[in-house]
Structure prediction request, 352 residues.
Amino acid sequence: MTNNLDPHCQAILEEYRQAKPSCEEAADVIKAMLEMVFRQSGLIVAAIESRVKTERSLAGKLELKGAKYASLADITDIVGVRVITFYIDDVDKVASAVERLFKVDWENSVDKRKLHEIDSFGYMSLHYICSMEGFPYRFEIQMRTVLQHAWANMNHDTGYKSGVEIPIEYRRSISRLAGLLELADEEFSQIRTDLADYRRRVQALVASGNLGEVPLDGDTFRSYLNMKPFDALNRRIASMNQAEIQEVSLMNYLEVFKALQCKTLGDVERIVKENSEGAFQLACYQIGLTDLDIISSSLGPQDICIAHIVRSGGGKLGLKMLMDALNGTSPSNEMMAEILLEQTSNLPFMNQ
Prediction:
């Protein structure tokens, strides 16, 4: 293909060959800078891709419109970076990061999201032409969602937009699919926004103490744990032996409390309040005469659940369910349930 180029284009191509190593280095630097700023800001993206235009691709571009370029510096996509986000609204966050990191050539940048054609979904990327100190060439940064990226790739593979006439029934199907994907993109972002609003409402309800109005789920239980509902009991237990408390995740108790028929955080709080004294008595029986100097933060909630199960008549079956939920299904859990049932049978809380 290079034999078809005039001397002017050949000179640009030779400039490209000499500049290619520095362009490859710049592509790596740009990608690393983006990765660092996303990591610092807590922004999670699906992928960051970088590339340097191949000599074959550049030659093809020069053959078509080489006369418009005075030098390699006039070609804005020798280095290209693509940032693929999970959500539509994250594209603007990425754009903000790019604007802080690099100088944007606004005149040559394009926001293709403003297109309104029915089949434009896969081409709705935000394209910035940028420059940075120490690198003499401009570069392009494309920003799009995962679904937009997938759509663009599918269109490329099927030959759509390639200039080949496609029968109208297929174009209609492609346009319908584009509409569905665009709707999915918008719905995913809306769901994330709605969930964030829900979490804020839940946190406000938990903070206000209106636990009976808060349904029990993963988000609400995590907010409840942030209130440290088992700390007082654990400190009381630890004080018996002046033991240290080793903090562990208590999220596995979510399924336990659900199995105990808790529907709201108010139900959980009721079980905690009604059984904390029984849990302390059980802990005294278990470790009061030992020299144990470290206890797990799960001891308090575990003994609360044990006390609740035996007081409510759950018996060995209920205790085995608890052990299975906490430790995984095992034949030894049935034996442990029998031991716990015996340990609790004569404790004072059982007669209260």
Summary: The two ends are 93 Å apart (CA to CA). Strands lie at 47-52, 79-85, 103-104, 110-111, 126-132, 135-145, 244-246, 294-296. The chain has a mean pLDDT of 87. The first helix runs from residue 7 to 41.
